């Protein structure tokens, strides 16, 4: 029931007059109403504050994790570049850096061939025939809705076709809203199949009348990443001119190791998972980088930087960037004297070009490099001069240079100014690779910021933060009017910034937790004005009250935060003790907040969160030992006596898992004791912690639950599951 | 005397930090300003119970002479400190809340009908917007019977308070 504006004003005026009357003259019903309204609004405001804080918690933990990942990967990169080939550490991880090797596409096609895989009679899932039709694609959507799984034969076949198509697509897709077509643009999906299904339900399936752009991050975190890919690829194959996919920072096999996609595929396809992952690796590298609508609207996943140059980007060999976290190796001389470039996926894709597929730019142009250049030899030469340095010193030097921003510089420095190589061409070559790489990383990883300027994105560890002045300049330079990007979760599913010149669209609802946010998609017609449709998957969440959804999300965030507290326990205690020189065991709440931020560095509003994390205090003083005990986090259920070893492991368990999965080359989920030891040594040198070989061996033995001489990665990670304490449990909410 | 002065200063300092912390949560551009529309939330999250009129007055005091839509921390801090030190806009005790509902429940049924509550909340006092009304109903109302058992509602909301 809404009054007209004048009605409200009248009512307000009346109210103001009435409120200024002595209380007794105000009619009781009005007094009662005023009281109830005042009380309820206060309550809603406090909920809003809690919601903001919860959001901050999730976001800072998420980005800190990404930063962590990149640091780890940079560390590996350093090992690769600076260790002699024989070193054992390098052997463990070298395979993830192995480029597309000495292999023609023909050889790859043979490896990925699905033809020998038989589909058993008992298989009740969908059958695909090629060339795929739109009813096939629709059938696939239905099948996944009914929780069926596509047989690996069809998966490989579908992926193979996709790979072939992507190779002939340009880096930047150009589309138009001609014939009054409205274009639908979706943001991050992150494996949330129910959101994609909801979008299709509300908006219709993709078709030539209903073109779609999907703006990256299809995979990781959610549990149906592969199903989403299969659906998107099948529609891409049916309508190659009307379905457009942009690569996101999660379309990257290194990132997938940490964030769940690798695990998902291996879990669903035990026999052929590895092959599927390898083919996906190629597909990801071939995904286009951006889409431009009517030459006016730029759509890409992350963002831009002050150096973004679309003309440069349209000319790169995008598939060389298998992982955006690392630039491709220079041309390397293999035994037969041919360079990799001679054998690159050059041309012969002609055979699979359908008449319905438009062949736009050719990606294939021979790289204009004069002299062959052997980086590896160069870095070893560099090493010769310092060959007496110990490994530890090398690593110390490397650790000094933390963060990707410096590693841009790092990389260029280590490659350009090591020894005195007089080759003039190579300098140029390296420049162009550095530039290209930076352009791509910026497109996939950057975030907008409110202030002017362009600074490295140290929170995530990749790309940059760019300001409104950069938006204006880049849009002007390319004669564009709007930038649409994704990459950041938004409470309402979308958000404008930079004077409405940048629009973030995010399509995974309930991203952090059930009830945390809505998802949204854009509809845009020839007027290029975006219209938004919002939604929230999971009927249950729509029925939740504000209070319940805030409560639930909050509990989840607090759980995640508690895990961090546990992981940093000894650092926190030392920090508390600095404020407690007389060792009374008590510190003030102000000092508590200071210590928390100094150790955890999450940039969270500790004073505001205090009431959720700390129970009773004595005169405003906190007994910190008691507080930790009351957090009542039970020790993981392994028989480990060494508490600090455990703590260190827990703190870095994501990195540990990533390394495990890298080492587990046959993707069996098992690693040997020796590999476990090596893993730990790798991690401890990255972290600058000392662990004795004996402690590690004891640990390995105690973790071998099956007593069969190998460690099951999943079992090991399970051991770190934590159980929450009473202090932070739900307060009376039935959910 | 010196001791008292010290502890008074310490108290004010704590109050300042509390205000700063709440303000920062909404300072999205990290430039010590917040959107004026968030001020109500900030003030209330610090434990105050102003009504809309009082809020309006507070904002008028804090705003720039030529309103920019943004509130600067330098202006917010002294006003808010005064509010907290003088304990303005005190919380409403649970029993008073109950009485308020009972006043509306003329027939003393122990509950309110959907239409009754809606009428009062959207037409009397400082009326709720439709959104506010819907949200309150979703929290307060028994969906099967369309009735608001206000005694339960009040205790639920009060228990929820983490303070």
Automatic annotation (TrEMBL), chain A:
Molecular function GO labels: calcium ion binding; Hsp90 protein binding; iron ion binding; manganese ion binding; protein serine/threonine phosphatase activity
Report domain EF-hand positions: 651-686, 691-726
Where is the region Disordered?
Answer: 323-381, 398-430
Per the UniProt entry, what is one GO biological process?
detection of stimulus involved in sensory perception
Which keywords accompany this UniProt record? Calcium, Hydrolase, Magnesium, Manganese, Metal-binding, Protein phosphatase, Repeat
Q: What chemistry does it catalyse, as a reaction equation?
A: O-phospho-L-threonyl-[protein] + H2O = L-threonyl-[protein] + phosphate; O-phospho-L-seryl-[protein] + H2O = L-seryl-[protein] + phosphate
User: Bias category Polar residues: which stretches?
Assistant: 403-419
Q: Which Pfam family, just one, is annotated for this protein?
A: EF-hand_7
Cofactor(s) annotated in UniProt = Mn(2+); Mg(2+)
This protein's superkingdom? Eukaryota
**EC number(s) per entry:** 3.1.3.16
Tell me which InterPro entries the record gives.
Answer: Calcineurin-like_PHP, EF-hand-dom_pair, EF_Hand_1_Ca_BS, EF_hand_dom, Metallo-depent_PP-like, PPP_dom, PPP_phosphatase, Ser/Thr-Pase_EF-hand_contain
- Check the record and name the PANTHER family matching this protein: SERINE/THREONINE-PROTEIN PHOSPHATASE 5-RELATED, SERINE_THREONINE-PROTEIN PHOSPHATASE WITH EF-HANDS 2
The record's comment on protein family reads: Belongs to the PPP phosphatase family.
Question: What name has this protein been given in UniProt?
Answer: Serine/threonine-protein phosphatase with EF-hands
Per the record, the gene is LOC120026507
Automatic annotation (TrEMBL), chain B:
Q: Report what the protein is called.
A: Dynein regulatory complex protein 8
A molecular function GO annotation: calcium ion binding
From which lineage does this chain's organism come? Eukaryota, Metazoa, Chordata, Craniata, Vertebrata
InterPro entries with a match to the protein in the record: EF-hand-dom_pair, EF_hand_dom
Origin species:
Salvelinus namaycush
EF-hand domain sequence ranges: 14-49, 92-127
């Amino acid at each position: 029931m809404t009054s007209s504006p004048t009605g409200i004003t009248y009512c307000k005026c009346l109210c103001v007059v009435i409120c200024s009357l002595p209380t007794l003259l105000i009619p009781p019903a009005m007094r009662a109403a005023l009281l109830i309204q005042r009380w309820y609004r206060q309550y809603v405001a406090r909920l809003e504050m809690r919601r903001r804080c919860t959001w901050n918690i999730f976001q800072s933990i998420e980005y800190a994790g990404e930063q962590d990942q990149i640091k780890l990967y940079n560390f590996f990169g350093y090992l690769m570049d600076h260790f002699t080939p024989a070193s054992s550490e390098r052997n463990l991880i070298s395979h993830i850096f192995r480029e597309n090797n000495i292999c023609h596409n023909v050889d790859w096609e043979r490896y990925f061939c699905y033809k020998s895989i038989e589909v058993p009679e008992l298989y009740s899932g969908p059958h695909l025939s090629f060339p795929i039709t739109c009813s096939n694609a629709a059938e696939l959507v239905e099948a996944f809705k009914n929780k069926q799984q596509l047989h690996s034969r069809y998966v490989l076949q579908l992926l193979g076709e996709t790979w072939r198509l992507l190779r002939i697509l340009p880096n930047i897709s150009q589309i138009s809203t001609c014939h009054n077509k409205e274009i639908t643009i979706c943001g991050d999906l992150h494996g949330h199949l129910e959101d994609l299904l909801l979008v299709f339900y509300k908006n219709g399936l993709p078709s030539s009348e209903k073109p779609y752009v999907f703006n990256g991050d299809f995979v990781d975190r959610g549990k149906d990443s592969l199903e989403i890919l299969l659906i998107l690829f099948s529609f891409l194959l049916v309508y190659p001119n009307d379905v457009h996919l942009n690569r996101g920072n999660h379309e990257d096999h290194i990132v997938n190791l940490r964030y769940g996609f690798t695990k998902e595929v291996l879990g669903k396809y035990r026999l052929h998972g590895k092959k599927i992952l390898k083919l996906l690796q190629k597909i990801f590298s071939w995904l286009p980088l951006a889409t431009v609508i009517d030459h006016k609207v730029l759509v890409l996943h992350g963002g831009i930087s002050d150096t973004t140059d679309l003309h440069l980007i349209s000319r790169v060999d995008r598939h060389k960037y298998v992982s955006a976290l690392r630039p491709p190796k220079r041309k390397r001389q293999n035994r037969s004297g041919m360079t990799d470039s001679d054998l690159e996926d050059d041309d012969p894709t002609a055979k699979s070009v359908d008449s319905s597929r438009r062949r736009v730019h050719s990606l294939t142009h021979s790289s204009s490099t004069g002299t062959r250049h052997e980086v590896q030899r160069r870095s070893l030469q560099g090493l010769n001069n310092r060959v007496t340095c110990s490994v530890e010193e090398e690593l110390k030097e490397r650790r000094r240079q933390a963060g990707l921003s410096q590693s841009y510089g790092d990389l260029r420095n280590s490659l350009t100014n090591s020894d005195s190589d007089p080759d003039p061409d190579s300098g140029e070559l390296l420049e162009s690779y550095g530039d290209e790489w930076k352009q791509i990383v910026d497109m996939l990883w950057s975030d907008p910021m409110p202030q002017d300027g362009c600074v490295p994105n140290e929170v995530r560890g990749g790309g940059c933060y760019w300001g409104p002045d950069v938006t204006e300049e880049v849009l002007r330079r390319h004669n564009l009017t709007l930038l649409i990007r994704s990459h950041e979760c938004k409470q309402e599913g979308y958000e404008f910034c930079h004077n409405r010149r940048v629009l973030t669209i995010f399509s995974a609802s309930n991203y952090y937790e059930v009830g945390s946010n809505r998802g949204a998609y854009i509809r845009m017609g020839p007027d290029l004005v975006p219209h938004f449709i919002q939604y929230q998957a999971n009927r249950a969440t729509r029925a939740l009250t504000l209070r319940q959804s805030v409560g639930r999300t909050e509990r989840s965030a607090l759980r995640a935060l508690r895990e961090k507290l546990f992981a940093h326990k000894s650092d926190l205690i030392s920090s508390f003790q600095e404020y407690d020189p007389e060792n009374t065991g008590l510190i003030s709440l102000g000092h508590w907040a200071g210590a928390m931020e100094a150790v955890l560095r999450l940039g969270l509003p500790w004073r505001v969160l205090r009431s959720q994390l700390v129970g009773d205090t004595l005169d405003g003083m906190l007994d910190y030992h008691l507080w930790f005990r009351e957090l009542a986090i039970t020790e993981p259920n392994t028989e480990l006596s060494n508490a600090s070893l455990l703590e260190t492991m827990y703190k870095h368990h994501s990195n540990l898992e990533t390394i495990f999965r890298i080492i587990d080359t046959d993707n069996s989920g098992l690693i040997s004791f020796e590999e476990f030891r090596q893993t730990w040594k790798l991690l401890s040198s990255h972290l600058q912690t000392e662990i004795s070989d004996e402690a590690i061996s004891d640990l390995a033995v105690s973790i071998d639950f099956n007593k069969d001489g190998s460690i099951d990665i999943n079992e090991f990670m399970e051991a770190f599951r934590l159980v929450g304490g009473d202090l932070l449990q739900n307060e009376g909410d039935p959910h | 005397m010196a001791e008292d002065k010290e502890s008074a200063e310490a108290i004010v300092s704590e109050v300042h930090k509390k205000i700063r912390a709440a303000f920062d949560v909404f300072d999205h551009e990290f430039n010590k300003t917040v959107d004026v529309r968030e001020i109500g939330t900030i003030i209330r999250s610090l434990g105050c119970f102003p009504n809309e009129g009082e809020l309006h007055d507070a904002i008028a005091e804090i705003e720039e002479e030529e309103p920019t839509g943004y509130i600067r921390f330098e202006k917010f801090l002294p006003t808010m400190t005064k509010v907290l030190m003088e304990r303005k806009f005190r919380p409403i005790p649970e029993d008073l809340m109950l009485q308020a509902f009972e006043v509306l429940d003329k027939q003393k049924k122990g509950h309110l009908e959907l239409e009754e509550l809606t009428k009062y909340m959207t037409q009397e006092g400082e009326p709720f917007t439709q959104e506010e009304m819907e949200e309150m109903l979703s929290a307060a109302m028994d969906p099967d019977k369309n009735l608001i058992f206000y005694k339960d509602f009040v205790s639920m909301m009060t228990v929820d308070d983490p303070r």
